[in-house]
Amino acid sequence: MRPRGEVRQAVAAAAGALVQQRGGFTGRDVAQCAQVAFEKARLTLKDMVLAGELVVIGQARAPGVCRPLNVYAQPAAQQTAGADLLRVVQRWADFR
Fold it and tell me: What is the SS3 assignment for 23?
């Protein structure tokens, strides 16, 4: 398996941060947070949805945009896996 490229790493990190802050995000939000071009972020999000790393949970309107934008989030399994790992690490740290 090929390693992730720089753009995909930046988009994945921004997506994780935005999910924790808001729960869902648009392509424009993640492009701004990851500091990548909107077109690159849009294509990367499309690939991440096909790979199962993200899911489209709805659509939202944005000012100055004629068409609704997709709203993305991480699948529930990924969100709980991260939370489970965080709990294990916290309990281990408390145990020491």
Answer: coil
Domain presence at residue 1: no
pLDDT tens, residue order, the chain (96 aa):
678 889 999 999 999 899 888 888 999 999 999 999 999 999 999 999 999 999 999 999 988 889 999 999 988 655 556 666 777 777 777 766
* CB 59, CB 71: distance < 8 Å: yes
In this structure, what token pair is assigned to residue 29? 């939000």
Distance from C-alpha of 71 to C-alpha of 84, rounded to nearest angstrom: 25
What's the CA gap between 41 and 95, in Å, rounded?
42
Question: Is 33:17 a contact under the CB 8 Å cutoff?
Answer: yes
Residue 63, domain member (yes or no): yes
- Domain that includes residue 25, residue range: 6-95
Residue listed under structure tokens 């281990």: 92
